[in-house]
Design brief:
The chain is of the alpha+beta class. The protein is built from 5 helices and 4 strands.
């Protein structure tokens, strides 16, 4: 006999219509995501080291920061950050909520980049789908940014 998992609602999202949706959404991580790990492994394997993860001293806590070079990398998931390349669909249920949620995510991403720019940092956003295509292109772009 298995126990049914009860998900605690914090009011930040509407209650999903399907239990599977709730289970899927609760498993999503904010840090050390698959795209982040792919990029970090590629950087390390190509001798690009000396970075900090989710560095608190930089505005927006970049996913990967090179404090000495003032370079910030954001590894964005296509769905949550609304990739302009693959243009993911908006959920059909509770669409008004999700449209506003995604709008605010994009706004927050832009604020982070502007804050970094104002203090002399260079930043780069790398999309999940870009890493799937050819991560070495982005490793080389990052290397150029660090020079």
């Amino acid at each position: 006999m298995s126990e049914k998992t009860i998900y605690i609602r914090d009011g930040r999202a509407p209650i999903p219509e399907k239990e599977l949706t709730s289970k899927t959404m609760s498993a999503i991580k904010a840090r050390n995501t698959k795209p982040e790990l792919i990029l970090r492994k590629a950087l390390w394997g190509n001798g690009i080291k000396g970075y900090r993860l989710h560095w608190k001293k930089a505005p927006g806590r970049p996913d990967i920061a090179f404090p000495g070079k003032k370079v910030a990398l954001f590894v964005n998931g296509c769905y949550w950050h609304r990739c302009p390349i693959c243009k993911p669909n908006i959920p059909r249920s509770h669409s008004e909520f999700w449209i506003e949620k995604f709008r605010r995510n994009i706004e927050r991403d832009n604020e982070k980049i502007n804050q970094l720019s104002q203090i002399g940092w260079k930043s780069m956003t790398i999309w999940e789908c870009q890493l799937n295509d050819n991560k070495m292109i982005y490793v080389n772009k990052i290397r150029d940014l660090l020079i």
